[in-house]
Amino acid sequence: MHDLVIRNGLVYDGLGGKPYEADVAIDGATISIVGTVTDTGREEIDAKGQIVTPGFVDAHTHYDGQVTWDPYLQPSTFHGVTTAIMGNCGVGFAPCAPDRHNWLIGLMEGVEDIPGTALAEGIKWGWESFPDYMDVVEKSPLALDVGLQVPHGALRAYVMGERGARLEPATREDTDKMGALVEAALEAGALGVTTSRTEKHRDKDGEHTPTYKAEEMELNGIAEAMKRSGKGVIQLIADFRDVDWEFGMLRKMVEISGRPLSLTIEQDDRHPDIWSQVLDKIADANKAGLPMRGQVPARPTGVVMGLTASLNPFLLYKTWHEIMPRTLEAQVAALKDPDFRTRLLAEKVDFKEGEISTQLFTWFHKMFPLGSPPNYEPAPEDSVEAHAKRDGRDPREVLLDWMAEDDGKALIYFPLMNYLPGDLSYVEQMLKHPNTTFGLSDGGAHVGIICDASFPTTMLTHWGRDRTRGETLPLEWIISGQTKKTAELVGLYDRGVLAPGMKADVNVIDFDNLTMDKPEIVYDLPAGGKRFVQKTRGYTASIISGAVAFRNGEPTGVLGGKLIRGSQARPAAAQIPAAAE
């Protein structure tokens, strides 16, 4: 008798080949059979008419604080995620001196839009070093597996104090100390090191993230530490305003360390060609034998605005602030009040040229109703600007009407990055590039303005089934892309494939009926903090280490998740065809 048998499903095994009908037997935390299973299971799942996939590996999340109080890491686990990797973009909570807790919280609050009050209330500090942090996470109850990376911002601030926060150059002594701490963290099981070089990342007071101007000696010192350890991956985001110089510096890190590197690929309307130049340089690096990858999104980096969100297009209007303290019902009434509307629309606001905030508040051609189910590839004729032109109205009037809908819970979608053509053609190019991997969901971050933890479901539903404004992509390719490929991106070779001997992380999905709800605000963070969550219907079961941890996206109470310490080799007993590797 097997512990669990999944019967009659259409198996997408993660290797990228065509699906096939098969049973899956699980014993303990390991897959024992993929094929015909004659013995019964202590528990059985009938997957007839459904697909069976490996559990999804999300390589880009920011649950560094949430992992210490939330074993379920929602909303990612509403979307089939069975392994979450955090510590990305150079921000996190270790190492951290006892007197720097509030500073790190402020950095995370600013960079990743996680309420500082929730972090201050929720995090129970019990560490200073990164290995100590890993010990705390390891002892925390977990429903899914998590992997941790060393954030350069916290590392720099720990070694350099205020000098690091003020972007001063690291000395040789500073660099050596950072290198030693990196080696210790990698030896303790950190999966890698991450950093940020983008002007978009600022703390709650608007100051640049401490790694923004880290110089070559510092970066190379970290790379040398990784070379000595022979472990870990590198992850980062950069602006690449000087593409040749900055990419050359990052390529040097790979040359020195010999370790894989992945970086964010985004198309910014202010600099529309940089993303393709960076991809060309990644391709050149791979031709030279350097393991560099682009992390690419499933859809635009989409800001969600509305009365319930943290942002709306009128936030910089003084008149708007009159109604901000009011209840949602009272705000809706104000939006319908002719006197308030007249005063609001008569106000002149000085928007700064070239700022992202100016785009968010004035680019009406990129504002769309999100709807339910949400449409993440809206057509230009559906924008606020297009509606206003057809009706002969001020686009801001259209916005006020839309925001008042659904009793004030309506949402406006602004595809900030990757949507210059007015569709997902750029994203399609990114996804199909031979040197990219799916990423950038930012699960756990930007909780009041972005809800991209649903990327795995977007890949399945939009790209694998529903897209009408362009081609769909093969479902077997999509599933491999967010299982085997994302696992291997961070050095995990024990999961991501349905085969005997592999880790038993499995999703059973009613693919034909898989549906994503629109994001909604809930107040379930510590200290009553608010955040967006986005649920789905169709994830019949998510199995982690052989046990059903989630049914229909909701936790069963099984807490079989673990901290992953270091890269994981392919199990010796794994039965994977050599040609598929």
From TrEMBL:
One annotated Gene Ontology cellular component of this protein: cytosol
One function term, GO molecular function aspect: hydrolase activity, acting on carbon-nitrogen (but not peptide) bonds, in cyclic amides
CDD domains: D-aminoacylase (cd01297)
Gene3D superfamilies cross-referenced by the UniProt entry: Metal-dependent hydrolases (3.20.20.140)
Pfam families: Amidohydro_3 (PF07969)
This protein's name: N-acyl-D-aspartate/D-glutamate deacylase
Annotated Amidohydrolase domain residues: 43-548
Database matches in InterPro entries: Amidohydro_3, Metal-dep_hydrolase_composite, Metal_Hydrolase, Metallo-dep_Hydrolases_sf
Lineage, highest ranks first: Bacteria, Pseudomonadati, Pseudomonadota, Alphaproteobacteria, Hyphomicrobiales
